[in-house]
C-alpha cells in the first residue's frame, strides 16, 4: 500500500531567513493523524539564508540525521563537537539524555538547503554522541547506496553513519530509464522521498520533485527514473 504525500500538500513555514516544508507535525503545525511513521518523527525540508541559522537549543531522546543538499552547514554542540557538512556527507546526532547544539549557514552569499530527520531511538537513556560520515556521490548513479544504518556490522565500513534504531537510509541518483529494485522484509515500512526528478514506483505510481510515498504491506519496490533523478529511501520497522 502506498500513501502518497505531494510536495505542495506539506505544511509551509516562512520566517524570511528560514523557509521550511514539514512532512510531519512540527512546531506550529499539528495534525494528530500525521505525527510519525514508524519511529520516524520529523522530515523537514529547510532553506536557510546566508549567515543565518539556529542558535544553541536543546534536544533529548531523539536520533537526528541531517543531509545537506546545497551549501555548507556548521554544527557546534555542548559535548565539544564542531564540524561542517556539505553534499556527500551525513551528520548524525544522538541526543540521548540531553545536549545543546547550534546549526548555521556560515556562507555570506550562498543559501543552505538541507533535510533534517528525527527518529525515536530503540532504547532511551543513551549517552549523547555526534558524528559525520562521507559517501562517494558518484556511486549514487549505480544504485541505492547505504548511508545510515542501525546494523553494527555495516557501521564498521566507515562511510555509513550509525543510528540507534533498526533502520536504514539509502540515497541514489537513478538515470533516465534505469530501474532499481528494493525488497522490504515482511512487516517493515518504507518511505520514498524524491529529492529531484521523477520516479515511477512499481510501474504506475508517479512521484515528482519532493513528493513522498509511505509504504506498508509491500515487499518488492521497483523504482524507475522518468528522468535523471535523486531519491532517498528509508527502511523502517
If you had to describe this structure to a student in words, what would you say it looks like?
- The protein is mainly β and 237 residues long.
- The strands form 4 sheets. A 7-stranded mixed β-sheet has the order 1-20-17-22-15-13-14. Strands 2-3-4-11-6-9-12 form a 7-stranded antiparallel β-sheet, with no helix packed on it.
- It has one domain: Jelly Rolls (Sandwich), CATH 2.60.120.
- It starts with a strand and ends with a strand.
- The chain has one helix at 152-155, and strands at residues 2-5, 11-14, 18-22, 40-48, 53-59, 63-70, 73-77, 82-85, 89-94, 99-105, 112-119, 129-134, 145-149, 161-162, 168-172, 179-183, 189-196, 199-201, 205-207, 212-215, 220-225, 230-236.
- The model has no long low-confidence stretch (mean pLDDT 96).
- A hairpin with a 3-residue loop joins β18 (199-201) and β19.
- The chain contains 1 helix and 22 strands.
Topology at a glance:
Blueprint: E1 2-5, E2 11-14, E3 18-22, E4 40-48, E5 53-59, E6 63-70, E7 73-77, E8 82-85, E9 89-94, E10 99-105, E11 112-119, E12 129-134, E13 145-149, H1 152-155, E14 161-162, E15 168-172, E16 179-183, E17 189-196, E18 199-201, E19 205-207, E20 212-215, E21 220-225, E22 230-236
Parallel strand pairs: 13-14
Antiparallel strand pairs: 1-20, 2-3, 3-4, 4-11, 5-10, 6-9, 6-11, 7-8, 7-10, 9-12, 13-15, 15-22, 16-21, 17-20, 17-22, 18-19, 18-21
Amino acid at each position: 500500500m502506498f500513501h502518497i504525500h505531494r510536495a505542495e500538500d506539506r505544511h509551509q513555514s516562512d520566517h524570511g531567513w528560514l523557509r521550511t516544508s514539514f512532512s510531519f507535525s512540527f512546531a506550529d503545525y499539528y495534525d494528530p493523524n500525521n505525527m510519525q511513521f514508524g519511529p520516524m518523527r520529523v522530515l523537514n525540508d529547510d532553506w536557510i539564508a546566508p549567515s543565518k541559522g539556529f542558535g544553541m537549543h536543546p534536544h533529548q531522546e531523539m536520533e537526528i540525521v541531517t543531509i545537506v543538499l546545497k551549501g555548507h552547514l556548521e554544527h557546534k554542540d555542548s559535548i565539544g563537537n564542531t564540524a561542517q557538512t556539505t553534499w556527500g556527507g551525513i551528520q548524525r546526532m544522538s541526543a540521548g539524555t540531553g545536549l545543546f547544539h547550534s546549526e548555521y549557514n556560515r556562507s555570506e552569499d550562498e543559501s543552505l538547503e538541507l533535510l533534517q530527520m528525527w527518529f525515536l531511538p530503540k532504547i532511551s537513556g543513551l549517552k549523547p554522541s555526534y558524528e559525520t560520515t562521507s559517501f562517494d556521490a558518484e556511486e549514487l548513479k549505480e544504485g541505492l547506496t547505504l548511508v545510515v544504518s542501525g546494523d553494527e556490522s555495516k557501521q564498521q565500513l566507515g562511510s555509513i553513519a550509525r543510528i540507534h534504531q533498526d533502520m536504514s537510509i539509502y540515497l541514489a541518483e537513478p538515470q533516465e530509464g534505469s530501474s532499481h529494485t528494493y525488497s522490504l522484509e515482511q512487516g517493515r515500512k518504507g518511505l520514498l522521498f524524491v529529492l529531484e526528478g521523477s520516479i515511477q514506483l512499481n510501474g504506475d505510481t508517479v512521484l515528482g520533485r519532493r513528493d513522498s510515498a509511505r509504504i506498508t504491506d509491500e515487499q518488492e519496490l521497483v523504482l524507475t527514473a522518468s528522468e535523471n533523478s535523486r531519491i532517498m529511501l528509508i527502511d523502517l520497522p
